[in-house]
Amino acid sequence: MERFGFEGFDVLDYGAELWSLADDVARRIRPERRHLADQLERASHSIMLNIAEAVGRYSPRAKANAYRIARGSATETAAIFVLLERKHRVSEVEAAQTRRLLLSIIAMLSRLAIDFERKATRAPATSARNRGIPDQKPTPENKQRPEE
Hints:
The chain is built from four helices and no strands. By secondary structure, the protein is an all-alpha fold. It has a single domain (10-122), classed as Up-down Bundle (de novo design (two linked rop proteins)). The longest helix has 31 residues, at 92-122. The protein is elongated, with a radius of gyration of 23 Å. 28% of the residues are buried.
C-alpha cells in the first residue's frame, strides 16, 4: 500500500501516541471542565496536523513555520497536562509517559524548525537574476539622461 510522505516520520508517530493519550484523558475530564478537554483535543490534534502540513510544503521557510506552529501546540498540550497533573486528573504513569512524549516532540520540532529556517536563509533570494532576467545596471548606453 502506498504511504503519505508524513507516515513513518518519528515525530508524527510520537504525536499519534500523544494524541491517543490526550484523547483518553479528555474523555475523563468532568463536564464542568469541558473547555479544558476541548482545548486538549484541539492542541494535540494541531501537533499532528501541522507536522503533516510541513511535510507537504515546498519552501524551507513554510516548513519551518509549520514546525514552529506544531511546537507551539505541543507546549500548549504540555501546559494542559501540567494543570491536570497538579489537580491529580492524570495518573503518575500517564504523567510520566506524556512528559516523555512531549519533551521528545518539542525537541524534534525545535530541531526541524531550526534546520529548515537555516535552509531558508541559505537559499538564494528570488530576484530578476534567479528568474533568468538580466540585471539592468546603468551603463553609458542605457543610462537615461535627465530631460533638459
